[in-house]
Amino acid sequence: MRHLVFSIFLMLFTSAGMSFEIEAKRKFIAKNERVVLTILSTTDLDLFSDVITRFQEKNKTISIDYFEVSSSELFKALNDDTTSFDLALSSAMDLQTKIANDGLALAYSSEFTEKLPEWAHWQNYVFAFTQEPASIALSAKDFADLPIPQSRQELIATIRAYPERFSGRIGTYDVRTSGLGYLFATQDARTSETYWRLAEVMGITGTKLYCCSSKMINDVISGDLAVAYNVLGSYANAQAHLQEDIIIVNPKDFTTLMLRSALISTKSQSPQIAGEFIDHLISFSLDANLAKQFPFPALELDALQQETSLRPIRLGPGLMVYLDRLKRENFIKAWENATLQTPQD
């Protein structure tokens, strides 16, 4: 859930000279505070609070200032000379890689980071700590009398067969403003031409555009949307436990896996403690008992070998290809031509 305190924090931090938007903020206060660790994160505060509390149970003198922002605003903040944060946690792997490549991240190594597979870290700068599918969220009510589409091609066929039912009731990211949405879209397009056919079909229905997964999922639950495409599976499953009217599908043609990642800012005042927090995040993937207490899908190496449809986005410089200005402009133009169409009567 995005938070209503947005306007208050935006006003406060704008007056402090910060040129990025903060959606929510909370300070987790230690009783015997000696150090304050500042975290800039794209992860919803409501989902992440237990992870922070568990860290403080082992580190009773460390308070944590947690700032929730969008992936594009996080990137902006790390490039802003007027701001200073210890740790950046983001779902936009391409932007995290660029931050590190631009010299804005500190190297870190520990017994925990050394246990990560090669594809789950980039050198000693960016470290994955979750493995989350890009899923399709469906309204159970709208699909009560329809077969559940298990692939993009089946979803296309369903939308074409029932255009009136889905008119104005399909949602996806606005890739022009959502860093994660742009990452998912470019990865989809690289994997299969089916993505562009789906984008065109959704565009014809008058697709609604969103900033983030949580808003799309909430609109599926409320009945405003029948389909939400490429939402974070972790957010969708968190809602599915509480709601009976949402169906989560991981497409069988291919399911893109996003690796939520962490890096230490070069402006960190407490780089060692920031590193210890990264170890804390990785530990949930190394211990099966801890993984059960983690609010996100932990890194699962066996799953990638057993499920050939799972396509993890690998950390590394290849992610920066679509961050090139010209390539981005061309991709956005093609996306706009496909998605921003006039709905048919």
What does this protein look like?
Mean pLDDT is about 90; it is low at about 1-15. About 45% of the residues are buried. The radius of gyration is 20 Å and the shape is globular. The protein has helices spanning about 5-15, 45-60, 70-80, 95-100, 150-160, 165, 180-190, 195-205, 215-220, 235-240, 270-285, 290, 300-305, 325-340, and strands at about 25-30, 35-40, 60-70, 85-90, 105, 120, 125-130, 130-140, 170-175, 210, 225-230, 245-250, 255-260, 260-265, 310. The chain has 2 domains: about 5-130 and about 260-315, D-Maltodextrin-Binding Protein, domain 2 (3-Layer(aba) Sandwich); about 135-255 and about 325-340, Periplasmic binding protein-like II (D-Maltodextrin-Binding Protein, domain 2, 3-Layer(aba) Sandwich), CATH 3.40.190.10. Helix 5 packs parallel to helix 8 (about 195-205) and helix 8 crosses helix 14 (about 325-340). It is about 40% helix and about 20% strand.
Which labels suit this protein?
single chain, 345 residues, alpha/beta, D-Maltodextrin-Binding Protein, domain 2, 2 domains, seven-stranded mixed sheet, 40% helix, 19% strand, disordered N terminus
Which secondary structure elements does this structure contain, and how are they paired or packed?
Layout: H1 6-15, E1 24-28, E2 35-41, H2 45-58, E3 62-68, H3 71-78, E4 87-90, H4 93-101, E5 105-106, E6 121-122, E7 126-128, E8 132-139, H5 152-161, H6 163-166, E9 170-173, H7 179-191, H8 194-205, E10 208-210, H9 213-222, E11 227-232, H10 233-240, E12 246-249, E13 255-258, E14 261-265, H11 271-286, H12 288-291, H13 301-306, E15 310-312, H14 325-339
Parallel strand pairs: 2-3, 2-4, 9-10, 9-11, 13-15
Antiparallel strand pairs: 1-3, 4-14, 5-14, 6-7, 7-14, 8-11, 8-12, 8-13
